[in-house]
Amino acid sequence: MNTLLLRQVTVIDPGGPHHDEVLDVLITNGRIEKIGKRIPKSDAPELRVQGLHLSPGWVETRAHFRDPGEEYKQGVTNGLDAAAAGGFTQVAVLPSTEPVMDSRSGVEYLLRKAQGHSVRILPIGALTKGLKGDQLAEHFDMRQAGAVAFCDDQHPVRNSRLMLLALQYAMNFDGRVISFPMDPDLAAHGQMHEGHMNVRLGMRGIPAVAEAMQLSRDLALLEYTGSRMHVATISTAESVELIRQAKAKKLRVTASVAAHNLLLDDGCLRGFDTLYKVMPPLRDLEHIEALREGVKDGTIDTITSDHRPEDVEHKRLEFPQAAAGIIGLETAYAVANTAMKSRMSVRKLVERFCQGPRTALGLPIPHIAEGSEAEITMFSPEHEWTFTEADIVSRSKNTPFVGYHLTGKVFGIVAQGQVRLTGALHAEAQ
Question: Does residue 271 share a domain with residue 130?
Fold first, then answer.
């Protein structure tokens, strides 16, 4: 399907010509052909859903597709399908694969595998060769091939001189360096947030200061160089304040938080369920409150899924041995909306999925206007539903949200000339 008439949708498009209007929108062959109060009936399939909203397409800044090397956990096509189900029209993919994506050939491999899909893939190149932290990878070559940013995933760069060089080098071609704020020595062997709960459960904790120490160093280097930096998945009150202070100094920094870190706290680990094991760890309510306030006031620009597929062999283990991470592409919006619904407007939350990620990655922001190419996300912020295993598109099933009652649901995307609706809506629009 590449043609669709949307009836009475609320447009959320700050800076666009139709923001906050309720309109009909006709999409034909991947373009927005007409927008109006009432578009006459045509041969196009029609879709009318109570409370349906429309915004420019959302961008995911941090997903792992396990390709190449561990395609049995996800793979590129399945990952892009999951992204579409979550409302994302573009998705940035991490370089920690086998082999590591640290050269032009790795970027080109990903782009080839994603050709023809409705969701555009955005390769993130490795910051250092092999993610080893010893030598910078081939940033310029990867940028020329299509990489949008550079990071070592969850391998913090210990060598301050190397991080300094990465920030300086990126300035030559408007590159983006992504920092993962976690001091590996302070966090070593930690299993969960350090606080009352880890003592109660008898598990080694990861202190909040481990995040603050690494972030403080990277922000100091950013201030020294005047470069750009995106800070991935902050999880503590201290980090929110550090980012807030950096922005007050006019440093060119953006930051993200994982959706699950806005909703879940370390009390979820009482049952030692490894589905709740993530990195950074689930924190206590004091930190979560600070994260939510940071999202609300714009200190945190971006909400990410931090999508990390794992098979049962890597998850159904004793807690210390289990891999950290959950799949989140399908649930990121619903989880974030459930956590933030009473705190901020629909517009502001959408900005954390659309404008914020695009700013962080240096991408243009499209608008919903007649004659423009359609890159849009369809969603309902008020729709209440229960997430079930049938809603999982990803090959891996490592999510704790099965059975959760959530508010806010994605109903489809239009991108790359293709219309993709959820199963029920697809049948309704025929």
Answer: yes
